[in-house]
User: Fold these one by one.
Assistant:
Number 1:
Amino acid sequence: MNESKSYLKKLFTVNKIIYCKLDHVSQSGMTRHISFYVARKNRIIDISLHISNVTKHKRSKNGGLIVGGCGMDVGFAVVYNLGYCLYPKGFRSSERNRCNGMKPTDKGYNWDKDGGYRLKHSWL
């Protein structure tokens, strides 16, 4: 688990976008199999195994993660959970603070206490 955490943190210093690919949906629509990737140095890297190690999601036979639930963006849910596991105390974020209408003179401007929002996702 610690190896996966350090690997992912090193990986996300350059690229903070995680790409989600829907591999399978159960007949009931309550379970999905999703693979996760990042692009780095002109390569696509499958990080599903590392996300599974950090967040404790089970893996499917095809290598993606098994995610239950419906009525939500399950890709966002996994990426948010990963961000929270990697950055439990929060992170520096002037960009997010500006989006929330904070000014540089506001107290707590450079620190976001919710590590779940550190990473972004996009669907393939």
Note: The longest helix spans residues 74-86.
Number 2:
Amino acid sequence: MHRYSTSKRYYVYILANAERKKLYVGISNNVWRRRLEHRQGFSKGYAYENKCFDVIYVEEFTRIEEALSREKQIKSYGRLKKIDLVKGANPTLESLKSPSELQAEWVQLTTAERAERIAKMGRTSPTNEE
């Protein structure tokens, strides 16, 4: 009999509006679904009202208690501290792409473009010494 992992994943995420003036901190077991719910106005709260639809930061947890604690901690931060946190992982505050968005982008590349991206990844690897 095969054992499959039944462990859940929980994510604390930060959404931003297009101008990066407004930030929203949330928790979900599916960031990309939750982003869509915010965008569609599933609950017309802060994220929807301020058009915070760009995922700019994500942390993953296996225990809900840890994720809830971290969400509360980040929510207690001032705006500048939140921005500093995001910039540690995402210096340009760019909108992160979902796995399906990345896959769709990859499929549209030519073979040469794919090879170029793969080569570039090898050059920028942290273990790659020059």
Note: Strands lie at 10-16, 23-28, 54-61.
Number 3:
Amino acid sequence: MDPRLGSDKSFLKALEEMSVQSGYPELKTVPWVLWGHSGGAIWSNVMTMLHPERVVAVFLRSASAASFRFDWHVKRPGFRQPEVPAAVYRVPIMCNAGVKEKPENGPLWRRNGVWEGELATFQEYRTQGAPIGFAPDPRTAHECGDSRYLAIPFLDACMAIRLPAEGSKDQTLRPVDSSHVWLASLAGDTAVPAADFKGNPREAVWLPNAAVAHAWME
């Protein structure tokens, strides 16, 4: 789950080899959409810190790198908290944890830092103006549940916003377009267009457009 221990280099090497063997050289440099659960979410979070310029968007289900700050059940002394480069705050992210993962909602073995870590990631990134949302799933604990019904529209929306225009010679990822953003209170269940939001936007859940906002409300 920590790409710094070797899987980052292995992943890049695999993409390079695949680009040659498949005859699609663009695979070596194509941007990434990262979507992970538990250890896969931690991996995706850290990979975004290592390669922010390559990541279109990220969906973190049931963990983030910050989760190990709160993990009392399985100590991870070998996991070094990564530094967050400023470029990460330009990558759209959705943090999605199950409400039943909250420490007060389960037995001791369930208190694994997932809820606290995802919430800390959201709050810390959002204070920096990052396009990041927090979506508590009321029906699940540490499983994926129906999270794909939020993940897929979220990632689709972010790809439409960030991928270069078809035929463009400049393949740099585009900055986030804020013109269609919706916001919601962290503790609420209603989202509104950003212009209509009455609270502090740097504490609000960020949602890229109306379709994702409605999926989040569901």
Note: The chain has two domains: 1-30, 33-73+82-165.
Number 4:
Amino acid sequence: MEALHNRRVEVRLYNFDDPDVVGTDSQYRALQTFIFAEDNTATPLGKILKLPGTLAINTDTTVSTVMTLSNKVFDPAKDPQIKLPGVGTTYTARAFQFRPDGSTSLSSAAGSNWFFTLVSSNVATQVSPATLPPNFATIQIDSIGGTVRSYRP
């Protein structure tokens, strides 16, 4: 088996209509990590992590800058669009990578702050910085060092 050291790891955020949550639209409600081999073949590092209950990632780019990333383009030969349980391939994804040196694929230009905010899916598409509910969490990603921090009120 090929060693898992010094490989790119990609984090994918999945947007889909959850059949288990009644009355909600398509939202970002799961994530998964993949490792890339030297030939750029992607392999899942684990199972999809579905956000619990009615949590979703807010899509307002002022509280979730990762939503400015383009949708993931899947390569059928080396990185096909996998089927998600209960969803199939009826989803979109946004992705970023952690590189072997610890940095990320996210822009490190001055003023680049990367984060996403988790809120109840009932308000996920309606929340702005001024209207964040009292029970939210923000995950910050350092684009240069690859460290991740969480903030809760």
Note: The chain has a mean pLDDT of 86.
